[in-house]
From TrEMBL:
SUPFAM superfamilies: P-loop containing nucleoside triphosphate hydrolases (SSF52540)
Organism name: Haptolina ericina
Taxonomic lineage from the root: Eukaryota, Haptista, Haptophyta, Prymnesiophyceae, Prymnesiales
PROSITE patterns given in the database record: MRP (PS01215)
Keyword tRNA-binding: no
Gene Ontology biological-process annotations: iron-sulfur cluster assembly
Cross-referenced Pfam families: ParA
Domain of life: Eukaryota
UniProt biased composition (Basic and acidic residues): 29-41
Protein name per Swiss-Prot or TrEMBL: Cytosolic Fe-S cluster assembly factor NUBP1 homolog
Residue stretches of biased makeup (Polar residues): 52-66
GO molecular function: 4 iron, 4 sulfur cluster binding; ATP binding; ATP-dependent FeS chaperone activity; metal ion binding
Keyword list, A-Z: 4Fe-4S, ATP-binding, Cytoplasm, Iron, Iron-sulfur, Metal-binding, Nucleotide-binding
Length: 427
């Protein structure tokens, strides 16, 4: 069936021969490469992925005399599609100046219109970015998608972290496969019960990830940038999302080739209300990479919906802690027993502690300095990590336990930012 062909094709290019020359062989010009989309199955079209030959994609992503590399663009870049590209004063000294002046950036990719048509019924598109790995970007993408769906909104979650697709696990969709319909690839839908407070309300949360195409959970995707970009484009051109209120796009960490290509592919599909949600942790080693992310948004003219500070502190009920004395011996049982006898109400308190130093005011101060919204702080809460491990909704599990979701204020801030007048461009 279509999903089986998809998985076999990914397996062929990820395990057999390292797929893209990862073992020292260059398969960029294999005889069996295809140009153009192959809609005969739910797999990946051709050796160049996404229906393009690899050499064509490389030409679009490598810096050369006839191509534009936005990663190396000047701060004052007017954009390669502008009539002033290569001629404006801000272009002086830019390595792309000659290519832009020759009109390289004005050659429109015909697939951009197809992508616009695919996403025309998506009201809000949110690109979740992080300057570095390990800050909880995918966790926030998954749990925000759950939380938005719990609001009765129609939500899609697109995982373009090609080499680290964790979204299927976090959404409880491990083992699911992609299905082909007459109009393209169909998202895999979450069917868990209890996601909404109103049990009669139907939840619409669709997911797409390369994780649904791999032969097994441990299969490595060993692809260079052009193949990854080709699959990202195929996700945008071939997935039939239908009408959505929100499409959340979980991206890889950093400001890599995939991010540049994604923004270029979405050039005609992004609305003024669309933009980026940037996830950070409080310490300077994370914030310095977030500043690069903000610089990326400025260069690509991508609106910043807000910055979210994750792992702001460790928070857990006091009764869940382990206690040790001065010599390291475990005294948890005795300590908890004494607390139960003398002041049991203390055990119900949430205890917190800083995990990372909040350098120079943390993400909030940085967002203020750059003139972009600060959406709030999310603690390092074991109940959030347990929900992700179980592929469950943290919002639903806390509601069923009679507790308040720590993500709810963030969701409300995100909804307000997306609905607000678009003004949060990085200056």
């Amino acid at each position: 069936n279509s999903s089986r062909v998809a998985m076999e094709h990914v397996h062929e290019h990820t395990v057999d021969g390292c797929g893209d020359g990862g073992c020292g062989h260059d398969h960029a010009h294999d005889d069996h490469s295809h140009a153009g989309h192959d809609h005969s199955h739910g797999g990946l079209a051709g050796d160049g992925v996404g229906g393009q030959s690899t050499s064509k994609t490389e030409a679009a992503t490598e810096s050369g005399p006839d191509s534009v590399n936005m990663e190396k663009a000047n701060e004052e870049c007017v954009g390669p599609a502008s009539e002033q590209a290569g001629k404006a004063s801000g272009c002086d000294g830019c390595p792309n100046q000659k290519a832009c002046a020759a009109g390289a950036g004005r050659e429109e990719d015909p697939d951009l219109e197809l992508i616009r048509q695919r996403l025309r019924d998506v009201r809000h598109k949110v690109l979740v970015l992080s300057g570095k790995g390990g800050v909880g970007k995918s966790t926030m993408s998954a749990q925000l998608a759950f939380a938005l769906a719990a609001e009765g909104l129609r939500v899609g979650l697109l995982d373009i972290d090609i080499c680290g697709p964790s979204i299927p696990h976090m959404l409880g969709l491990k083992g699911e496969t992609v299905h082909q319909s007459g109009s393209g690839w169909s998202p895999v839908y979450v069917t868990q019960e209890g996601l909404c407070e109103d049990e009669s309300e139907e939840v619409e949360l669709g997911v797409m990830s390369i994780g649904f195409m791999l032969p097994d959970d441990d299969a490595a995707v060993i692809w260079r940038g052009p193949r990854k970009n080709g699959l990202i484009k195929q996700f945008l051109t071939d997935v039939e999302w239908g009408a959505l209120d929100y499409l959340i796009v979980d991206t890889p960490p950093g400001t890599s080739d995939e991010h540049i290509s994604l923004v270029q592919y979405l050039a005609k599909a992004l609305n003024p209300q669309d933009g980026a949600l940037i996830v950070s942790t409080p310490q300077e080693v994370s914030l310095m990479d977030v500043r690069k992310e903000l610089s990326f948004c400025k260069k690509t003219k991508l609106r910043v919906l807000g910055v979210l500070e994750n792992m702001a502190e460790y928070v857990a009920p006091l009764e869940s802690f382990r206690f040790r004395n001065a010599v390291g011996a475990d005294v948890t049982s005795d300590t908890l027993q004494k607390l139960r006898e003398s002041c049991p109400e203390v055990l119900q308190l949430l205890a917190g502690a800083d995990v990372f130093p909040r350098s120079n005011g943390g993400a909030e101060a940085m967002a203020s300095a750059y003139g972009v919204p600060f959406l709030g702080r999310v603690p390092l809460d074991p109940s959030i990590t347990r929900a992700c491990e179980a592929g469950a909704s943290y919002t639903a599990t806390t509601r069923l336990a009679g507790k308040r979701s720590l993500l709810q204020p963030i969701v409300q801030q995100l909804l307000a930012a997306a609905a607000a007048e678009p003004s949060s461009m990085v200056e």
